[in-house]
Specification:
Largest sheet: 3 strands, mixed
Radius of gyration: 22 Å
GO molecular function: G protein-coupled receptor activity; olfactory receptor activity
Organism: Crotalus adamanteus (Eastern diamondback rattlesnake)
Helix content: over 70%
Distance between the termini: 70 Å
Membrane topology: Multi-pass membrane protein
Number of strands: 3
Structural class: mainly alpha
GO cellular component, one term: plasma membrane
InterPro entries: GPCR_Rhodpsn, GPCR_Rhodpsn_7TM, Olfact_rcpt
Shape: globular
Strand order of the largest sheet: 2-1-3
């Protein structure tokens, strides 16, 4: 425990103390979490087994789905368990572990979204160089960089946080171990933690948003210069799904963290939507709005139905 802190566990203040509402909330969140796992795992499997989806864009999408699973799984299972318990607590080590891994994968998602924007820039603005620029080795390197950045970025915040002294109270006003809420409980100086948060989180957000805006500015200019309406529609269709995911991700992030003075209950509702709903929506967006994914899913479904109703029979 940091500096011999007196606190050995933290109490999580859930959305409600009403047992009936907690049960209803458990059922709803369990269904949403199941959809999140099914949708994202299904997207990964579909891309892996469909040769027509073996392109850089869908390679990045498999990792986006993996990161969404990890982000949701860092928080949701614990919250579901707490909804069935009277005492909603988390150990000192468990709290910091939850913060660390959620930070790793949420940071990784920021960089993955920026990388996917760069991928669209190369595909639309430099199509003849696309397969050379976005080679398999380059794609793997970019994904590894996003994961390493997430690991290091989260360490920058979690290590100084473990140096803090916690003497009580130990009530976190949220349903999970949220970094800002945890810092409010510290009995020691948190100026360094706030400085690190401002510098590193600020840099991460500004760098990834700038990369996304720059990439799509060039994409938009290139699309507007196209003479063929069909080519413009095709170029727009490859970008709309990603743009919707970016809007939901950063819009949700801003709604959770960029509203000073909002109530703790409002903050919990916003966090719930961001943590649980956002990872569920991403595969739905790509499956409903992306023509390549719909075609691949249709082919897979037809193949499975054909093999089920017309099995191969070997004659001896």
């Amino acid at each position: 425990m940091g500096n011999g802190s007196l606190v050995t566990e933290f109490i999580l203040r859930g959305l409600t103390d009403d047992p009936q509402l907690q049960l209803i909330l458990f059922v709803i969140l369990f269904i949403l979490y199941a959809i999140t796992l099914l949708g994202n795992v299904g997207m990964i499997v579909l891309i892996r087994i469909s040769p027509q989806l073996h392109t850089p864009m869908y390679f990045f999408l498999t990792h986006l789905s993996f990161v969404d699973i990890c982000c949701s799984s860092a928080i949701t299972p614990k919250f579901l368990c707490d909804l069935l318990k009277e005492k909603k607590s988390i150990s000192y080590a468990g709290c910091f572990t939850q913060i660390y891994f959620y930070g790793v994968f949420s940071t990784g998602e920021c960089f993955l979204l920026a990388i996917m924007a760069y991928d669209r820039y190369v595909a639309i603005c430099h199509p003849l160089l696309y397969l050379v620029t976005m080679s398999q080795i380059k794609c793997v390197q970019l994904v590894i960089i996003s994961y390493i950045t997430g690991l290091l970025h989260s360490l920058v915040h979690i290590i100084p946080a473990t140096w803090l002294f916690f003497c009580g109270p130990n009530i976190i006003k949220n349903f999970y171990c949220e970094g800002p809420a945890l810092l409010q409980l510290a009995c020691s100086d948190i100026s360094l933690n706030n400085l690190l948060k401002l510098v590193f989180i600020g840099f991460t957000l500004m760098a990834t948003i700038l990369a996304i805006l720059t990439s799509y500015t060039y994409v938009l200019i290139t699309i507007l210069k196209m003479h063929s309406a069909k080519a413009r529609r095709k170029a727009f269709s490859t970008c709309t799904s990603h743009l919707m995911v970016i809007t939901i991700f950063y819009g949700g992030l801003a709604f959770v963290y960029a509203q000073p003075g909002k109530s703790h209950y409002t903050n919990q509702i916003a966090s719930l939507l961001y943590v649980v709903v956002t990872p569920m929506i991403n595969p739905l967006i790509y499956s409903l709005r992306n023509q390549d994914v719909k075609v691949a899913f249709k082919k897979l479904l037809e193949k499975q139905l054909h093999s089920f109703f017309i099995p191969n029979i070997e004659l001896h």
